[in-house]
Each structure stands twice: as C-alpha cells, then as structure tokens.
Amino acid sequence: MRRTVFNEDHEAFRETIRAFIAAEVVPVYDEWFAAGVVPREFYLKLGELGIFGIEVDEEYGGAGIDSHKYEAVIYEETARAGVSFGGSGVHTLLGLPYVKMLATDEQKKRWLPKFATGEEMWALAMTEPGTGSDVAGMKTTAKLSEDGTHYVLNGAKTFITGGVHADRVIVCARTAAPREDDRRFGISLFAVDTKSAGYSVGRKLDKLGLKTSDTAELAFVDVKVPTEDLLGEENKGFGYLGTNLASERWGIAFGAYAQAAAAVRFAKEYVQERTVFGKTVASFQNTKFELAACQAEVDAAQAVADRALEALDAGELTAAEAASAKLFCTEVAHRVIDRCLQLHGGYGFMNEYPIARLYADNRVNRIYGGTSEVMKSIIAKSMGL
C-alpha cells in the first residue's frame, strides 16, 4: 500500500536499524530468549546508535526530534525480524514523556544526558497487586519527612516492564488520601533511584510471551526519596498519567499492527517452501484465501495505526481515538497471527519458529495499557453512551 507517513530520513533510519538488527540481535537472539532477558550492555549499544536520544533535546545530548515516527520504524523492523529490544521500549515510550513534560531544568540536566546514552535506564511503576487497571486504588504511599527534605516510600508494584535493569523508576504513590468526591486526588510521581536503601527487585516474572523483556515485582520499604526527585506537583499524578496514556496506547496499537504484518510475511515465506501431497502449501486455494484475508486486515490496521501516529505527532490524538486504535489493531493482530500460525501446521507450535514467539508475545497487547474492555468503555463514553 502507498504510505505517506514516512519520509526519506525515516527510510534511511530504517536501513540503519535493519542492519543493526541483523548484526547485533539476530545472531544472539536465541540466547536472550533462553535467558529470559536482554544483556544490560545491549542498551548501551542502543544508546550509541542514538535510539534513546531521538526525542531528547539537543542541549542534553539528544537529536531534539519531536516525533514518534522513528519509534514506529523500530516497531516495524523488530517485528519483521522476529526479535525485540527487550524492555527498552518503556524507556522511551513511557519514561521520556513524563520527564519532558514534568521535569524542572535542574532535573533534566541531571537525568537526560544519561537517559540518552543508555547509562541510566528508566521504567514506570504504576500497577499494584490487586488493583490492575484501577490506578486510583493504589496503596503505595510516600509521606513527607518532618524536616521536608525527603519522602518515605512504602508499598509494592507488579508487572513492571524493564524493572530488572532499571536504574531509575517513575513510581506512582499516594501522598494524600483520596477525597470523597475525587478518589483520583492524592497521587504523586517520583523518579526513584533503584540503588536506594529499602528498594528491592523481587521476582523476574515468568511470562507467557515477551520472554526477552524483563518484567518484575518491586518492593519499597522506607525508601528515602529526596524532594528534588518529585516529578511535577504533589497530588496531581493521576492527571499526568492520563495525559500520556494516549501515546502509550498508540505504541501498543502500532506494535500490534507491525506484528500482524510480520506474521503474514512469515506465513507467506513458509507456505511457499513447505510441500504437502507433492505440492507447495501456497498452491492450495485455502492458503491463498487465508493469506489474502489476513493481508486485507493488515492493510486496514496499518491505515488506523498511521492515522493515529500522525495525530499523535500533531498533538491531536484524543483518548478515545487512541483507545479505538488500540482496540482495533490489537484485535486484528490476534486474528491474523492465529491464522498465520495455523498455516504453519505443527511447526507453528515450535518456539524455534518466529510465528510461535509472535503468537505468545501478541497476547498481552489486549491486556496491558488498558484491556480491550477498558478501551470499549472509553470509546462508548466518547459516543455519549
């Protein structure tokens, strides 16, 4: 399909990323998959390549490009190769927007140079055991010390992507009790140094998919967080979280579309090589019809993902539009990847084939960043229902 979302600079970047993946990721990816984590030093290579600094201002060592289109290229190229960059996606997609939006000049000078190089990896800790999508129901607390120099952080978080390798984590915690008329009040954001006393990383969670992405449980026992590490204003954290949910949901939508496109590519290559009953699997009408239907769905998902990307870059992507894009693209990817795995037969169930890993990786897209059911609620509300 003809696309207008990318220009020559993006395509040149694509060639760089594709070559990097072929040289630095594909040869060792099976080792990463078996280990269940990407080596920490790999993130330094991403920093050297300039990936983490694309949207960081030039004065802090970045390229100062205010666009998510380079991220979109990375989604497409990692999916195309059947690999991932581990938990590094949260560093830029989830961590950076909060720093750019909320950090003071002093905080930016302290944090962003090492953010851009990968020396200091960031993660976001929002979800708690037992709360799920109910962010306002969080129990983690941060109480200001009597002398006003620091907060004392206590609580636990779970499902924290990038949590094992993170050097600094944006932790959402209650600094005040909820109001009777506003249970969202009282949440604040803190950029917590993971080397702090009382901060601990619990289990590295054993997930169905996303095996190379480090996802962990975190615990805080009387962790002292300096007041200068408060992000934004006290008690306004819930509003900040809502501001960045649209970009997070776009990222999941675009990543899902890219996975669906990759699945069609994997299946097409497989059925052209595999023979059964003396003929290639690709020669059967059912195969052609299945892949044609999958391609049509991918084309539609690409259009939705691209439209959301343009709106995001223009600062116009609404919560309802982001929810709609996430719902549509993730549901399409679910159907397409399942059908493409079916075309692989028994080999589609083997982890040595990228379609099997893709099938497992894709499942979480309809859960994290807000479930499909939450997306439907947001869309319905925007319809006046």
UniProtKB/TrEMBL annotation:
Acyl-CoA oxidase/dehydrogenase middle domain location: 123-223
Pathway(s) annotated for this protein in UniProt: Amino-acid degradation; L-valine degradation
One GO term (biological process): fatty acid beta-oxidation using acyl-CoA dehydrogenase
User: What is a single molecular function from GO for this protein?
Assistant: acyl-CoA dehydrogenase activity
Among Pfam families, the record links this protein to: Acyl-CoA_dh_1 (PF00441), Acyl-CoA_dh_M (PF02770), Acyl-CoA_dh_N (PF02771)
Oxidoreductase as UniProt keyword: yes
Keyword Oxidoreductase among UniProt keywords: yes
Acyl-CoA dehydrogenase/oxidase C-terminal domain location: 235-383
Q: Which domain of life is it from?
A: Bacteria
Question: Which keywords annotate this record?
Answer: Branched-chain amino acid catabolism, FAD, Flavoprotein, Oxidoreductase
Record InterPro entries: Acyl-CoA_DH_CS (IPR006089), Acyl-CoA_Oxase/DH_mid-dom (IPR006091), Acyl-CoA_Oxase/DH_mid-dom_sf (IPR046373), AcylCo_DH-like_C (IPR036250), AcylCo_DH/oxidase_C (IPR009075), AcylCoA_DH/ox_N (IPR013786), AcylCoA_DH/ox_N_sf (IPR037069), AcylCoA_DH/oxidase_NM_dom_sf (IPR009100)
Q: Give the family, as the similarity comment puts it.
A: Belongs to the acyl-CoA dehydrogenase family.
Q: What is this protein called?
A: Acyl-CoA dehydrogenase
User: From which source organism is this entry?
Assistant: Streptomyces arboris
